Amino acid sequence: SLTGCGLLKNTEIVFTTGLSGDQLFKIGKSVCTLPEAMIYVMDYQRQYEGVYGVEMWEHDFGGVTFEEYVKDTIVDQLASMKAITLLAGDYGVELDSSEEERVSEAADAYYGALTEDQIRYMDLELEDVEALYRDHALSGKVYEEITKDVNTEVSDDEARIITVQQIYLDSPETAQSVKEQLDAGRDFASVASAYSQNSQITWTFGRGEHDEAYDEAAFALENDQVSGIVETADGYYILKCMDNFDQEATEANKVTMVEKRRDELFESVYEQLVAETPSQFSRKLWEKVHFADWTGELPPDFLAIYEQYLGE
């Protein structure tokens, strides 16, 4: 899932010049047309209206309507994908004949499932669908090429996931009193229920998710061991280790950590691209689009068809 990182936020807003016909935005030489964007519009409409109903589009969503929020999301996602395809030449990336064939098959499957009314409403042609599927596939290959040499070695300790019970207190005097009760043999969970000022007692996490002092104390504990009083920026903690190595969760965290490394490397390349690439956006054209304008049957899931034909 590639996000646009605000690519168009500082873009030249075009009303009558710079873009032509159905061109919604342009990033360098890469163009996104309104019919292409309408595929995403219909996908989001199907996704949300099926759960929340048509009235949701005018609901306030942090100072903007939900429609405005979703439309911003659509442009951001499309802008990201279109921008990434600009890097294909730099990295020698292209679709092979098999991938091109599957792009055509996916486009045929999507376009062939549309009604005449849907095609007319989106002003869509088969070539628009092919272009969007091709850009999806190409941007994914570019990402893989850029990040192929990322170090995938992650140690068990680096990725270790643990589970602790905690007692959170806001004064050192109370923390000392509670610690004395624990030292005297009182059950940790019972004391936590009685005294902790955070209702959640049990926490499962990896390194770097808490204050440094909290992390250092938590990851030093053996199973069933209770810590001393841990002072952090927001208060005082006493911890009991319930599981100092969740193997299944640790293995899953290794995957997450490698993906984070890949994302960070890609982000650095992407940010440079954004800084160096001029772009234009037709706000006037985009303002004409409203989810409530379509009340008929919704098209098939565009990205589900992509996964069917082009997913790993």
Walk me through what this model shows:
It is a single chain. The protein is of the alpha+beta class and 312 residues long. It has helices at 34-52, 66-85, 97-112, 116-122, 126-146, 156-159, 172-183, 188-195, 212-219, 247-276, 283-286, 302-310, and strands at residues 12-13, 23-27, 30-33, 162-169, 202-205, 230-232, 235-243, 279-281. The protein has a four-stranded mixed β-sheet with strand order 1-8-2-3. α2 packs across α5 (126-146) and α3 runs antiparallel to α12. The two termini are 14 Å apart. The model is unreliable at 1-17 (pLDDT under 50).
Q: Which descriptors would you attach to this protein?
A:
51% helix; 312 residues; 4-stranded antiparallel sheet; alpha+beta; elongated; disordered N terminus
Quick summary of this structure?
The protein has 312 residues and is an alpha+beta fold. The chain has 12 helices and 8 strands. It has helices at residues 34-52, 66-85, 97-112, 116-122, 126-146, 156-159, 172-183, 188-195, 212-219, 247-276, 283-286, 302-310, and strands at 12-13, 23-27, 30-33, 162-169, 202-205, 230-232, 235-243, 279-281.
